[in-house]
User: Fold UPF0260 protein SAMN05421759_101383 from Roseivivax lentus.
Amino acid sequence: MSDDPIDRDGLSPRFWERKPLSKMNAAEWEALCDGCGKCCLNKLEDEETGQVDLTRVACRLFDDATCRCAQYDTRHSFVPECIVLSPETLEQHAYWLPRTCAYRLLHLGRPLYDWHPLISGRAESVHEAGVSVRGMTVPEFEVDDDAWEDHIIDEPH
Ligand code: SF4
Ligand code: SF4
Assistant:
């Protein structure tokens, strides 16, 4: 999988169908990310209704061309609020995670989609399926906070 920035080599076939999330090792856990980039978009949450709207305003570290975090390993030096998904924190974040997010799907007992790089064998398949946000974001430093609602989008899925 040479086009894949996430190392998915050497993993047991279909491990996600046989192992609960809480039993996965670090490599398996990281490999679940499909690279859609949707969790790097800013959301608007209505405190009264709980409704979460997605905007196309991306985190300042998001690289729109690669659909990746530009500083993933050191991101917390720049974006301390960036969440760390883990088996322990998944429950509290599941409500706002994108509908197609592999962590959310498995948390809900659902299968992964065929375009997931673990199944397709290619990182590009998430973009070809129209599920990612590559090429459709604006950086948050170009949009005032109070203008985010002008950039609300339907989740690509
Ligand atoms: S939404 Fe889920 S699958 Fe998509 S980039 Fe974020 S963590 Fe990965
Ligand atoms: S710091 Fe990186 S991983 Fe975290 S939201 Fe921003 S772009 Fe995404």
About this structure: The chain is about 20% helix and 15% strand. The mean pLDDT is 95. The two ends are 23 Å apart (CA to CA).
